[in-house]
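lol forgot to send this yesterday, sorry. struct tokens for the thing we talked abt
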């Protein structure tokens, strides 16, 4: 079971605990904007895309459902364009016990607004979600 208010924190902490990401900036996603400087290193922005509950509840405080988390991978133009795929597969490994049910990966595209390549991956998971209540207060 995952507490709904901790989904993003849990996802991020799994990634940050992996030494593979030690040289990659991992951050919560913010709206895209023009970057005043050129990106020199790889960055990954993570955010919640959606949370959907199934009709059948498990009990009063726990619901079954799915949630999707997106990762926007920003790659400076000088890097090998296969790096984002390696990042996605490593994230899969780190969060596999969340019960991954689908992964959608966009093609890598040059983005002139942020001045680098960008690839989005959306991870969808099925799990029990807790929204608080007697046991979580």
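and heres what i got for the seq, position by position
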């Amino acid at each position: 079971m995952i507490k709904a208010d901790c989904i993003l924190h849990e996802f991020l902490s799994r990634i940050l605990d992996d030494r593979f990401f030690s040289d990659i900036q991992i951050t919560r996603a913010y709206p895209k904007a023009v970057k005043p400087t050129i990106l020199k290193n790889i960055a990954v922005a993570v955010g919640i895309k959606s949370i959907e509950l199934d009709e059948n509840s498990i009990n009063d405080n726990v619901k079954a459902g799915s949630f999707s988390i997106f990762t926007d991978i920003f790659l400076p133009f000088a890097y090998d364009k296969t790096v984002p795929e390696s990042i996605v597969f490593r994230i899969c490994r780190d969060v596999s016990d969340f019960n991954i049910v689908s992964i959608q990966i966009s093609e890598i595209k040059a983005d002139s607004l942020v001045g680098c390549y960008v690839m989005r991956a959306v991870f969808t998971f099925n799990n029990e979600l807790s929204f608080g209540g007697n046991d979580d207060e």
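The chain has a mean pLDDT of 85. anyway ping me if u want another try
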